């Protein structure tokens, strides 16, 4: 919906929370906050309360002037919400796109906690909802969709008599000046007018062929329409004739409204906000503080207003739209890759050299120095402990030796795009990219040599089974080495661009590729003989482009791709099913950390994460008594100063060694070297006298090593 108008202004919205009765996603947003989906509609309720809606069926609510928001996704089973209209505190409507890709209308009578689908007689997408009073409602949408209700939105009639039968332009907004006079606007400069309450509609001459997106009236005769390429049209005779006025911008203007004080406010692409103080005043550009596209604006009082847009952008004003405060927190830069550095440490890389680091499992993120590069970074990888590598455009290679806190440029032997990197062991690391490029380092990423891949196709992903066996995939190609990268053997795999590969064992692996043509299924192939032969796995066209894979164990895996698609396998990749995702952003990277945390990143700065597995409280209690395997927990607190606690569990009586090392691999403390009985154990470490920095604690027992990271912060 381009513009929202309130039939009943004075009421308090009943706000929901993330633990209310409607179904909630197990996913949580790490960036941006409160969420990062595109928002298409917003409505205020009093100076402090508002509700906004958008992609992935997202509905967010605030009751404290935007300081905090509750988040609901896939409301009513919709994958995107385009329009929203509330009649009162309880009764409201949303329209958008259903999971079946058709238009849908839903109604709530409990403030949005539950939604019921209402039949409309059309599968067209519905872009604007308006109620003239409690009974008479109107909806317009794609392909000239035009619906009317006379019973409060319970039933809707399609294609009201009087609408031109040959009208196929999309209709974007509808507005009624009074009970008789109404207008609708849409693509290619379309303007429709009714003067008999909607019985008959006529096309009006339009001075533009640009798409028209929103309409409002200052009074019964003075109205404004806004559209693409900075279009502003005005009428002074109730919509019979229209003339163009200068907007001062070439931005696409998406939404317009009039405040209760009579000021006009318009929002659009690139963060454009235009304001007119009174009906015949000049339109003036205002500073929004953002370049993010804005898609909807609404005012509840002369001073209080809100605007929302792409990537979850929220702006709030308390002075009638003269100045605006950004309520969304975080970055909107496209993120291309994510990697675990062990423990709670996660590194994310993205466009323009952006590197983010989290030391607490994704709860907070900090921008890290990236060696002064402004090149797009596409992949990051860490060995079990350290070092780490990131690769990107123009042959960019960055390295870190402190878990991702600091990065420095490494000498590269190429100047073309590098897409992905992986470690075979702490010393051997591979990077792949355009024109069949494969680079290898045998000293942890300090010095690189170019190998012969056997193909000139772009390579998109590389996976190391061990120090000798490595597999890379690319555009119609798989290439493999069995001698640590000395020689490579390529095989052709059709016309699909293969984007992701993962092996769960030396014999079993999975690759994902792009559909070979629009409307065809995602390409998924699986091998059980180490890559000698590959068989097709059943897939759906709706899955589109899958860009990343991560397995938590040989059986359970996850894949992420465009439009927020998330897939899950429970049989080692032999079959896949859709996993509901909280976002419609394109997901480009995914990783699993030992804390049971699955993290995905993508466009618009999206970072989402969830805890995977099906651990019950009974399982936890049983594991605490006698574990079935060796387990090393995360120290707490982390970061710490100067003491922290380390937990571990052993399945039987064992000799256990627990030591702490610095980033140079030097031992700094032996915490335990003794025989212990089965079950849980705790060790408290006092790091007094040691400098701040990253340390590694290593548990050894029964020939098994486990290592995690801790941070001393004084």
Task: Write a structural description.
With 714 residues, this protein is mainly beta. Among the domains are: 1-24 and 35-124, no CATH class; 335-611, 7 Propeller (Methylamine Dehydrogenase, Chain H), CATH 2.130.10.10; 618-712, Sandwich (Immunoglobulin-like), CATH 2.60.40. The strands form 15 sheets. Strands 43-44-45-46-47-48 form a six-stranded antiparallel beta sheet, with no helix packed on it. A five-stranded mixed beta sheet has the order 34-38-37-36-35, with no helix packed on it. It is elongated and about 90 Å long. The model is unreliable at 1-24 and 614-627 (pLDDT under 50).
Instruction: Tell me the number of helical segments per DSSP (H or I, 4 or more residues long).
Output: 1
Helix content: under 10%
State the low-pLDDT regions, or none: 1-24, 614-627
Number of strands: 62
| Main CATH class of the domain at 335-611 | Mainly Beta
Distance between the termini: 51 Å
The strand order across the widest sheet is 43-44-45-46-47-48
Shape: elongated
Briefly note the structural class of the backbone. mainly beta
